[in-house]
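Q: Entry one of two.
A:
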Amino acid sequence: MMITIETERLILRPQTITDFDVWYPMYADPQIFHVTNSPGFTPEEGWNRILRNIGHWSTFGFGIFSIFQKTDGIFLGETGLANFHRGIDAGFDNCAEASWVISRAAQSRGIAKEAAEAAHQWYVDSFAPSRTVCLIVKHHPASIHVAEYLGYRIYDEYLYKGAECFKLECLWEK
């Protein structure tokens, strides 16, 4: 499935296995995941994660996009919506869950907002959901700010893999 979304500065497209070499360093960077108490991924965990993301597109028709800078093709991160099936509760797990991870070099430039907004617009136009959700670690104000920019509001708290998180939802008009 080769959907391509272009914004003023970015190109988003579904992840492919050829992204692994530029994608994995972001997921192996412990500074990216310091807020979740996660050390980052081993190569095997990263390989399994990107394979999951690729397979998600063929199963559900939506998923995680790789984000590239339009001017030079540099990889900046990932965003999209997916069915992560975390086992949180039926109200959460039965909705598409928003996600964004931006490489350290691309942070603080509005990339997450621009990319996530474009991915959400595509998803809403394509699937007309009534609700989407996301899970964000409580002490990650930058990510909470992106979620609020997109229209998400905190509705509950949840302990996920030892991290105190907020459950957020966005209600979409049909």
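Q: Entry two of two.
A:
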Amino acid sequence: MTAHDPRLVGSWQKIDDAACAAKYAAHLRFEPTGLYFGSTEPAGGFTWWDGGTWATEVPGRLALSIANDEVVIYAYSLDDDTLTVDDPSGCRFRYRRAL
């Protein structure tokens, strides 16, 4: 059975504009079913996080299927309504829970 951290479910807005994070979605929505949807700002641009599956089999590790269908593991932490993500290259960026 695939594990999903229920605290991630919902909508998120990227709050960092680090150059290394430009390829990641500006808006994310995690569904409790294990699917996620990402979009860019402005709409229609390319993002590695366009949509696919997500899981948290290991605490603090988020597995996402990215645009080329590869599953990549990211480190993550939650502090209230702020989601911090570290990609495998060491890029750190944050999202805030959207209301």
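A: Comment on entry two: The chain has a mean pLDDT of 94. The longest strand covers residues 71-79.
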